[in-house]
Design a protein that fits this description.
The complex is a heterodimer of chains A (232) and B (89). Chain A has 232 residues and is α+β, with helices and mostly antiparallel strands. Chain A is built from five helices and twelve strands. The chains are: A alpha+beta (232), B mainly alpha (89).
Chain lengths: 232, 89
């Protein structure tokens, strides 16, 4: 496919603005490798009620809440330091196991601020205490066309509703049209967006939500973005 | 109505395919070709198959290959129906 045809296809799938951003991101990656990158996220709010099936049937999947050091984490490509950092910030993980030995899927969330690990940012779900932030929802490929994802959301959702949490927020790449469409079909709606320009240790953030603009160059500097019920 | 038409109608209704469903034949790809058929929507398709054909689908019976094409899904339904009725004779 020619570059022009690729651009047209990207424009059809993501919109013209995002297609230009994706083209710029790829061009910069060619020139500078991983040192210069552009990320664009849409923030999505998803009502928890009605998501998934809270009562897994049969005995194929065993769903359990797991902690740091759980041995089956070694089956996925997540550095142990990343797993430890997630638990250290209060994240919870619901995992599905088959045959007592195979990690079939998991989902993660926090009920409170989440320190993003792809860019430097702290995402704060609002209203505080009534919203969760979900991330790294993963299912082993051979179980993706089955009920497992529904079970994970059903069980996690039932727990969250019991705690008074009615919606979950997440960031979806603007270049992942399938995930955006899937979230929309489940009742999700876009409540904001942000672009992160990363060059070495420099990071410029442009966001539809406060603080709108943010420039950082140190690891301990990051925008705190409050994501909730507002529109973009 | 044969099984193929019945399954096609289920896909049309559950995934809101409209007239696109009419163009599906046995060789038509489902997984990867129908954006509506994602890992959450598939649960509704399975539930509709169970409801309308009267069988139960266990979690370890289904995978991506089941939903590869309309033909593979129809074959799955046919096998389930045969299992439910039992061998003839």
């Amino acid at each position: 496919m020619s570059p022009l045809a690729k651009f047209r296809e990207a424009a059809r799938r993501f919109g013209h603005g995002n297609a230009w951003l994706l083209a710029a991101s790829r061009a910069l990656a060619l020139l500078f490798g991983q040192r210069v990158r552009i990320f664009k996220y849409y923030f999505m709010a998803q009502p928890i009620a009605g998501m998934g099936t809270a009562r897994p049937r049969g005995g194929t999947f065993d769903l359990r809440w797991v902690r740091d050091g759980w041995p089956l984490f070694s089956q996925v490509e997540r550095p142990s330091s990343v797993i430890a950092a997630r638990f250290a910030q209060g994240a919870r993980c619901l995992a599905a196991v088959t045959n007592e030995s195979e990690l079939a899927g998991f989902l993660w969330f926090t009920v409170g601020p989440y320190e993003e690990d792809e860019v430097r940012a702290r995402f704060c779900p609002e209203p505080v205490g009534a919203s969760a932030w979900d991330f790294d929802v993963w299912v082993l490929p051979r179980y993706r066309m089955g009920r497992l994802l529904s079970y994970l959301w059903g069980v996690a959702g039932a727990q969250l509703i019991e705690e008074g949490v009615g919606q979950t927020l997440s960031r979806i790449s603007a270049f992942n049209a399938e995930s955006l469409a899937s979230h929309r079909r489940m009742g999700g709606r876009v409540v904001g967006e942000a672009v992160f320009f990363c060059a070495g240790r420099w990071q410029l953030t442009k966001c539809s939500l406060a603080p709108k603009w943010h420039l950082s160059w140190r690891e301990d500097q990051r925008p705190e973005i409050h994501v909730g019920n507002g529109g973009p | 109505m044969d099984i193929s038409d019945h399954v096609r109608n289920i896909l049309r209704d559950v995934l809101s395919l409209g007239s696109r469903a009419d163009r599906l034949d046995g060789n038509s790809a489902l997984l990867g070709a129908l954006p509506e058929l994602d890992s959450m929507a598939v649960v509704n398709v399975i539930a509709a198959l169970e409801d309308q054909f009267g069988f139960t689908v266990e979690d370890d019976e289904i995978n991506g290959a089941t939903f590869a094409t309309l033909g593979s899904l129809v074959e799955f339904v046919s096998t389930k129906q045969t299992d439910r009725v039992g061998p003839a004779g």
